[in-house]
Amino acid sequence: MSDFKALSEAVNKGDTKTALVEAQKALDAGSSAEEILNKGLITAMNEVGDKFSKGLLFVPQMLRSAKTMQECTKLLQPFFQEGDVLSKGKVLIGTVKGDLHDIGKNLVSMMLEGAGFTITDMGVDVSPEKFVEKTREVKPDIIALSALLSTTMPAMAQTIEALQKAGLRDKAKVMIGGAPVTEKYAQQINADSYASDAGSAVNKAKALLGIS
Amino acid sequence: MVANAKNIQPPTHKGNKQARKPRPQKERRPRRIWLHVYPKDIWVPAEYGETLWAALYKADMELDSDCGGIGNCGKCKIKILSVVGPPTSAEKGLLDKVELEQGIRLACRTKAKRDLAISTEKTDTELDYLKILTTSHVLRSRYIPISQLEPLIERRPVTLPTESQNGKISDLNWVRMGLGAEYSDLQASIHCLRTLPQMLKKTKFSGVAVLHNNSLIAWQEPEKSKHGYGLVFDLGTSTIVGKLINLSNGSEAAVDSCLNRQRWHGSDVISRLNYVKQNPRGLDFLHNLLVNDLNNITKHLLKTAGLKKEDILIAVAAGNTTMQHFLLNLPPHGIAEAPFIPAVTDGLIVNAADVGLELNLSALLYTMPTKSGYIGGDLISFVLNSGIAEQKDEVILGLDLGTNVEIFLGNGKRLLTCSAAAGPALEGARISSGMIAKAGALEGVRIEEGQLHYRVIGNIKPKGICGSGLVDLVAVLLHCGVIDPEGLIRPTQKAEYQDLNSRVIKRSYCYDFLIASEEEGFYGRPIYLTQKDVRELQLAKGAVAAGVHTLMDELGIGFEDISHVYLAGALGNYIDPISTLRIGLLPGINVKLIKSLGNTASLGASMVLLSKKYWQMAKDVVNFMEHVELSYRHDFNQYFVQHMDFPEENIW
Questions:
Q1: Nearest to B274 among A61, A102, A151 (CB)
Q2: Considering only CB atoms, which chain A residues are within 8 Å of B337?
Q3: Which of chain A's residues have a Cβ under 8 Å away from the Cβ of B72?
Q4: What digits encode the pLDDT tens for the residues B544-558?
Q5: Pair type for strands B187-188 and B215-220
Q6: Final residue before a domain boundary, out of A47, A79, A111
Q7: Distance CA B4, CA B110 (A)
Q8: Chosen domain end from A79, A102, A122
Q9: Chain A contact for B535, CB < 8 A?
Q10: Is residue A85 included in any domain, yes or no?
Q11: Residue B489: alpha-carbon gap to chain centroid
Q12: Which residues on A lie below 8 Å from B270 (Cβ)?
């Protein structure tokens, strides 16, 4: 069976054109959509995330790869079959109240999506109440909170408290991240996990749900 | 300064801890710990269990810090010369193996439990080398001729007939009559009235009436009054500048500056806002630190000019919105998070004594109007300097570079402004070997015949790199092919720069650039430009370029439409314009159009001090200017990502 090397390379480079051609080729050669997704695209995105964590590539390159991945997934969409395991889990993500920073959170969203998670992105300046409401509605496996200011970090704690009060805290894992956030802070506010960047967020999310 | 500093006790970060139970008698601990601090060779007392940071702070010793002593930034390095204990987990994370082995620790994480000898690796002379920008470059159009000076206070020589002593008319009424009919409803400050009878007698009814709007604020002896003087303050987040201005001719009579002592509680505005949020007395404390700095500067200025504090009746201060809140002791909490609402944006006129400034008790303090939480009085000063609002032909772009980069674009037809969060990289923070522009900071880089040449402040071996040095270094490395357009450090392919490859070193997964080897560096430790440092700069310059692009789109213009680019502040002054273009900090502009205006905050404050016209203009500018909030805009985010890459083209 194919090892999707060319496809993987195209996703790594963020070369959408080549990636689409390669994905189509793989379909024509008889690979299943699920196989292309898991062994081709997701594996490639894992490599991209890893390189990002190591500093070998940066935001524009990672976004390019994530977009390539999205386009390829669109191409595969009609070919998925019933019973295909398409989602690794549901993630509810947002930047906390008082904080308008978008990009870091979007990177995490894209990387998680690229790794096979289903994402509900609530945007920025999301109040604890809105997180609670949406958690009830979406029933996510993971709630991911972002804050880029040391002044808005306390809103993460407030959100976790609100989930606790609403009786939802044990229904989902909470992971947090953002420039001023630390592992220690995550422990302090009783979050389940901390991710230092978009690349490691994928690994942390998988670890939280016990998948590889 | 030392004496004053000791009077201020910082509230602790964690608030009041409950008093501990007294320990059993046998665990006798020494009451006081002594720290022998090299190279100053002085002894500093410390309480048992107190951090070295706190002890050194009380002794007024200089330590680097971005985080304000909470163990996050790793900058407050000291060397333990005596027996060193195991590092804390924070130290293990922030210091490298070599440093830990050499006995380097973080002052804020090290507790004094026994007498210690430590080295701060600093010398007394360092402060002399500190680069604080005080000079302003006045554009020709901004120069106010003496004939057009109209200072905020008016000094009018008056000779009153002495017959007022017949007891029929009050002293104030006598002054009113002496000034003429238009002053029939003249008001007077209480302090002025308290001294008026005595001063009239002392001056034999021939003196100088000092007027502010319609109020008499002082009666002075005529020989004192040949020149009136006023003060202007630039309330910078990291440095404070004060100038004594001659009100009769507009000249600078004395200049003084210092590091903003508030930096102990964070190097940027956000960390200080956070400090205020977490400490009930935090605001009072930061306010006092600032006022203390201003009073010290004032003392030096007055001493230089041979004046007394009673001689100063007017001061104008300009700073970012948060600093102006700190000066006025106004709660700045709203600025900390969206929607970033300050307590006040108006330009205020208050009694200087109410704020704590040690001037004449009748002295007035003007604070510049601000536009919003992140468009402050310093930017309004900059706008006044640029003359942008007074003409409609040329489009002017202005940038005040720092942790927050304020940008304005336009002219008298339409004027836009925005504030882009560039992060602290441009000020040398969050850069592995980053430092502020003081002795030992690498501030400029050139390449000649394949070899790098550095310019270091104070002409000593480099200790680290400051903002202008970082921009220069990255520009040069892009030129030499050591950094690729995506920001990756790797060995260059270019034959003429092969020598540099010995400095391109793989330390972990990626390459770092060796700025100075163990032998070349001041501390006997190597200094690197790490891959992560380059990433930080990419974020900073991406944000600035994106801010400029967003404003250009909003105004509907391209680069070719921009007639002048003005830079404000220290970084704008020392940064090499060609390097800014090479890294794409300023995109695609003719380098000849770029001009630094120097310390624009103090210059704008001087303009207001010297001319009521400019005080009015400052208020008008605030109303006229449109604020573009970048946080809400998707086009900004798109530009931001797009401009994180470096330009491909090599402009050298």
A1: A151
A2: 97-99, 149, 151-152, 155
A3: 180, 182
A4: 999 999 999 999 999
A5: parallel
A6: A79
A7: 26
A8: A79
A9: yes
A10: no
A11: 32
A12: 149-151
A164: left (phi over 0), alpha (psi -120 to 50) or beta: alpha
Out of A54, A60, A106, whose CB is closest to B509? A54
Q: Quick one: A172 and A195 in the same domain?
A: yes
- Measured distance CA(A139)–CA(A123) in Å, rounded: 18
Residue of A150, A153, A185 to mutate, interface with B, max B Cβ within 10 Å: A150
- Return the pLDDT at B651: 63
Tokens of B572: 């704008």
Residue with tokens 């979050």: A191
| CA distance linking residue B206 with residue B227, whole number of Å | 16
The tokens describing B219, both together, are: 């009666």
Give the type of residue at B482: V
Of the partner residues B510, B631, B642, the one whose CB lies closest to the CB of residue A100: B631
The residue whose two tokens read 């046998």 is B26
- Ranges of residues in chain B with a pLDDT under 50 are 1-19, 27, 29, 122-129
Unique residue bearing structure tokens 């985010």: B637
C-alpha dist (Å) from residue A137 to A109, A173, B110, B161, B602: 19, 16, 48, 87, 55
Answer whether B270 sits within 8 Å of A182, measured CB to CB. Answer: no
**Chosen from A12, A61, A100, A105 to mutate, greatest number of chain B CBs within 10 A:** A100
Reported as a single tens digit per residue, the pLDDT across A4-24 is: 999 999 999 999 999 999 999
Identify the structural domains of chain B with CATH numbers, from first to last.
30-123 (3.10.20.30), 386-425+537-600+611-642 (3.30.420), 433-529 (no CATH)
What is residue B501's DSSP assignment? G
Contact between B2 and B60 (Cβ < 8 Å): yes
The enclosing domain of A164 has a CATH number of 3.40.50.280
Question: Are A97 and A185 found together in one domain?
Answer: yes
Closest of B408, B365, B366, B337 to residue B567, by C-alpha: B408
The pLDDT value given to residue B124 = 36
Report CB contact under 8 Å: B337, A103: no
What domain range is A42 assigned to? 5-79
Task: Tell if the CB–CB gap between B273 and A151 is shorter than 8 Å.
Answer: yes
Residues A99 and A157 placed together within one structural domain of the fold: yes
- pTM over 0.95, yes/no: no
The predicted-structure confidence for A121-176, as pLDDT tens digits, reads as follows 999 999 999 999 999 999 999 999 999 988 999 999 999 999 999 999 999 999 99
Q: Is the peptide bond before B339 cis (omega within 30 degrees of 0)?
A: yes
Question: CB-based contact (8 Å) between B532 and chain A?
Answer: yes
- DSSP 8-state assignment for residue B482: S
Query: Hey, is the C-beta of B633 within 8 angstroms of any chain A C-beta?
Result: no
Using alpha carbons only, give the angle A49, A53, A56 rounded to the nearest 5 degrees: 90
CA-nearest residue to B272 within chain A is A151
* Dihedral sign of CA atoms B387, B388, B391, B397 in order: positive
What is the pLDDT at residue A199?
87
How much of chain A, in percent, has pLDDT values that exceed 90? Answer: 83
DSSP string for B122-168: --TTHHHH------B---GGG---GGG-B-SEEEEEEE--GGGGGTT
| pLDDT score of B224 | 61
- Residues 226-285 on B with a CB inside 8 Å of A are 270-271, 273-274, 277
Domain count, chain A: 2
> Is B637 at the interface with chain A, CB within 8 A?
yes
A57 and A147 housed in the same domain = no
Provide the pairing of β-strand A173-177 with B252-259. Answer: unpaired
Residue B488 and residue A99: Cβ atoms within 8 Å? no
What local confidence, expressed as pLDDT, does residue B12 receive? 44
